[in-house]
Amino acid sequence: MGSMSENTKSLYADFNGSAPLNKKVKEFLLERMATGTFSNPNSSHALGKKIMFAIEKSRRSLAKNINAKANQIIFNSGASEGITQVFHSVLADKPQDGRDIIVTTGIEHSCVVKCCAYYEKRGYRIIQVSSMQSGLIDIEELKNIVDKNHEQIAFVTIMAANNETGVIQPLKEITSICHQHSLKVFSDTTQFIGKTKFDFQDSNLDFAVMSSHKIGAIIGSGALIAKDINDLKPLIMGGGQEKGLRGGTQNYIGIESMAVALQDFQDSLHLLDQVAVEREQFEQRMQKKFPQIKIIGQEAPRLASTTMLSHPEFDGQLVQQKLEDKKIYVTTSSACSDDEKEISKVLKSMGTDEQTARGVVRISFCCHVTKECYQHIENALCDIFQKN
Ligand SMILES: Cc1ncc(COP(=O)(O)O)c(C=O)c1O
Predict the structure, then answer these.
(1) Is 277 in contact with 283 (CB distance < 8 Å)?
(2) What's the CATH number for 4-21+269-387?
């Protein structure tokens, strides 16, 4: 599956915002809609049981592909819900047992930022670990913060792969530092799962999340993965679904499609190295032609198919518009903040200078991106940067 539409010659390059339906998912859904059973999975009749069987099969498949146990997965509506449930489960309406610190970073998605702000109003203190220019967090600083404050820390939340830059944090180092003091660690893995290899057990995270629409499944589904589901409290009350941890009839079509999408990613893992090469070559060619161009996070490990590129002499929103005139769809930073004139808080936190930050465009694909996609976007960008 490429991202370039042959008929219209349009190119969708905003997979980190939301990925189009994966080809296998599309095939699955067409068949599923035409022939499938529709029923309440929690009903005791045969049709309900059939749907519940499909849900559990999907749970086992997802678990296998992220090396978790099936009973560690709770289905929900997406990553925002999962993130909010983690905060709701670990924190209380006011700090308990003298644990009033939330350790986080300046590069989190707005969902984590807003959850932190919600609990800050209820008496928690926020400590942000600094990010370096590379986009990686300062791991020494994290260690010092944890060593010094571990008796007051309620919870640590550090994202896995950044939605804007694609920079990947060293999850195992993070969990190892925090677990020395038995602290619970959550990582926003929304952009990580289905974009690079994820091993829940090996990461040693206490909580992780995933989202269907980031991986080419149908929008509206997600999962919360917990090392011990006894640590979770329900955010949505209901009829006891998902072991009483997430009320509401399960979105079984979404769940099934998520399992198909993740399976396709797993079957395509071998493509990732080549995708990284194509991405790297595209970036190098652009920098050779325009030496002013900066690639954000270039020195750090990054998702194979994400590029955040800035030509500091061009306004990113203008470049986005000019690309759109050529039917190429990118964003300036995260989709949610597209309308805000403010520069990205992620880039601010990394210490990116303002001019560079104003110039950024984010180009994001999946593991099926082709050389032609990069060539097409390169031609368009060169045209824009040369003409103006
Ligand atoms: C890093 C990250 N976390 C969380 C979310 C929220 O995901 P969802 O749309 O599934 O609620 C997103 C999506 O923009 C994201 O990129």
Answers:
(1) no
(2) 3.90.1150.10
